[in-house]
Amino acid sequence: MEDQFSKLKSEAAKVDLPDECEENDRAVQFLALETGVGHYDNLNLLVLSVLMIFIAVSFLAVNGGKIRNDEELTLTKESFLSGEFEQGIEKRYLRELPIPEQMQSAEEHISFLYGIGNTISERGSGNYNNLIGRQQEGEEYNPFDNDERDENAVTTKAVMTDKDGNTVTEADRDETAPGGGTTAVSRPASTYKTYSMPDADEEMTTTNNEAPFVTTTTTVISHHTESTQDTEDSTEPSDTEPPVTEDPDSKPDTEPSDTEPPPDVPEER
Amino acid sequence: MTYTDLIFLFAIFPVSTVLSMLDRSSEYKNLILIITSLLFFSWGRPFVVCLIFLSLVVDWALGLCIGSIREKNRTGAVLLTAADGIMNAALMLIFGHNYLFADTALALEDIMLPIGMGYYSLRGFSYVSDVCRGKVRAEKNVFCIMTYMVSFHLMCAGPMVHYGDMEGQIRKREVTTEKLNAGLNKMIWGLSKVVLLAEVFRKIRTAGLNGSEITTLGCWLGMLAFFAQYYFMFTGLCDMSRGFSLMGGFVLPINYRDIEPDELFTGLVKSYNSTVIAFFSDLLGIPNSKSKVRTAVCAVICGGIMGLWYAVKPISLIVGLAAGLLVALEQLFLKNILAKLPAFFKYVYLVMASLLIFGALEFKGFFGYHKWVLGLMGSGVQYTLSVAVKDAVLNNCVLILIAFCVVCTPVRRLITGSADKLSAKSRKAYGTVRICKTIATAAVLVISVITLAANAAV
């Protein structure tokens, strides 16, 4: 076929064809190509159908090695009408997919092709939590509609004392370094820290102006005046600290008085 | 069950296809198709099978009644058609939009609800109304009606096809290698749209429209991703549906088409779920209307009906009416003004109109929508871009680029045109292009299956 096509082409090149023959030339070329269409169509069909059949057979026949005998599938009128039978079949089919760990690993490796910055989760532990992560990601949410604060929201409070015996209340320990620039850092609200020392009748407010929407409130109630160094130490949350206070009502540093605790009680929110 | 369930793709569908090839008669193929479709439709919810049989038998019987009295008693035929319409609407509301009946006796568990009730109800009603209008004769063979009504090819994303267009194929059809090849290719590329591309945009949407860190670019990218996610989900399912039907010997109408800037917002609306829009337009008499004002009014009503067909919620109705109103305004006078704009500005107009109208579908109420619109303009937003959005975009930039080439018609035409030119050079070049296409299709199938299996693996 290729010879015929080349022959036609070479012959056409020899002859100085008039304009009206150009269309004929294209038609000849098209016909020559057309005869190959069926050949490549068949090849395409063969490759894809073999692949489909291979996947179908391997999914049906190859065992994932996780058969559980405690889930017997019995076809009864009740199990069929309640849909339990079909669900059982589907569960068993998915459970018995071949090489599930390798599939998950392959999927992660393939994701490298999708873009920049993809990582592979640690596999050594045998803990495959990526499915759970995906499920959580896919949960329905509509946060733009949730501006009104939830009246029923439960806030947690942690009261702790520092090494000097001062009571320390942390608003949020998840704070990351304030960003600045134009990229928001994923973090909860926390920007300003208030230290109240009622006995000393002194209040010190530290404000981070670079991230106004992110606030942290730290209240230190002390029976004696603290040094600056002590104050700094108490602002550094650590992972070992107990649960911290969620502070939905934190306001920007323009209203520091809102954060003042009652005289004798640690501030609660 | 959906088209992307592994048990359907690699167990039920291949078995059904192989079984249907054992005999050339259409009756045998129809029987296999009905059994497979009932399995598909009622998987895990056999109660639905009873519902299907009951409703399609009613449609069939009403069709016969209307066919026999249509010429003698026109009013009676119209009343029967209206009764069928009410029955199908009730079916759609109860089983398709069951959230309306929460805390009532009609409330059903999600697991009991069948899929595709919107399309199913429309098919039932379209058959009876076509008989009433004399577009198709009443079918005496209930199995032909059953094949039309329950065929899984039409279940997930349409198309909304009339019985008259299917009747010939139900009675006689052939499965050729050309159809098998085209169908397999369509199915695989559709699967990749759903599994790979729609998923990418879901991630960007989740990150961008996150109320705890609203950013300007997040509002833009999140909403564009929202559209892209549903576009690829829908077009992917349509491609899969068309592929399955080709492999079963059917040739179905296309349910979506390319977005052309010259057709403005009207063209954009009609390009998505086009067979359903055509059905409602036809029902309201828009194609036959000669009055511009009547057409405009009908367009608004059609928009409202479409909105309610998608979801029976106030926001859907408002969005549908708003879209219908813009279509009506274009028909009345805007088209003449906007047609003079350069293509770029037409694209800008389309993007802005779509964002502002259809963007509301993402929110439960006006408050969220208002907040998002302010975010779009950068009002009350401290940051331009969040880390989550940046990561979601960068981690999937290759897929986003591919998605852009698929959606953007001029770019896609440039690529396919170049491939055509290359393959027209010589037979060797043609073969190279075809083999590359086969390899790409096989690779896409493998990647999609691995992704599906990795997500589903227990």
Structure overview:
- Chain B: This is Alginate O-acetyltransferase complex protein AlgI.
- Chain B: Keywords: Membrane, Transferase, Transmembrane, Transmembrane helix.
- Chain B: InterPro entries: MB_O-acyltransferase.
- Chain B: GO terms for molecular function: acyltransferase activity.
- Chain B: It comes from Ruminococcus albus.
- Chain A: Residues 229-247 have a biased composition (Acidic residues).
- The complex is a heterodimer of chains A (269) and B (458).
- With 269 residues, chain A is an alpha+beta fold.
- Among the domains of chain A are: 1-65; 74-114.
- Chain A has helices at 2-14, 20-61, 77-81, 84-95, 100-110, 130-137, 228-234, and strands at residues 159-161, 167-170, 183-184, 192-197, 202-207, 218-221.
- A three-stranded antiparallel beta sheet of chain A has the order 1-2-6, with no helix packed on it. In chain A, strands 4-5 form a two-stranded antiparallel sheet.
- In chain A, β4 (192-197) and β5 form a beta hairpin.
- Chain A is elongated and about 80 Å long.
- By secondary structure, chain B is mainly alpha-helical.
- Chain B folds into three domains: 6-173, no CATH class; 180-377, no CATH class; 408-457.
- Chain B contains 19 helices and one strand.
- Chain B is globular and about 70 Å long.
- The chains are: A alpha+beta (269), B mainly alpha (458).
- The interface between A and B is large, with 73 and 82 residues.
- β3 of chain A pairs parallel with β1 of chain B, so a sheet runs across the interface.
The separation of the N and C termini of chain A measures 84 Å
**Biggest chain pair contact, residues each?**
A-B, 73 and 82 residues
* SS summary, helix count of chain B: 19
Unreliable runs of chain B:
none
Count of β-strands of chain B: 1
Q: What is the tally of helical segments of chain A?
A: 7
Q: What gap, in angstroms, lies between the N and C termini of chain B?
A: 18 Å
Low-confidence stretches of chain A: 123-139, 148-161, 168-183, 185-269
Mean pLDDT across residues of chain B? 84
Give me the strand/helix succession of chain A. HHHHHHEEEEEEH
Helix content of chain A: 25-40%
What percentage of amino acids of chain A are in beta strands? 5-15%
Query: In one word, what is the shape of chain A?
Result: elongated
| Helix content range of chain B | over 70%
Q: What is the overall shape of chain B?
A: globular
- What does the main sheet of chain B amount to? none
Structural class of chain B: mainly alpha
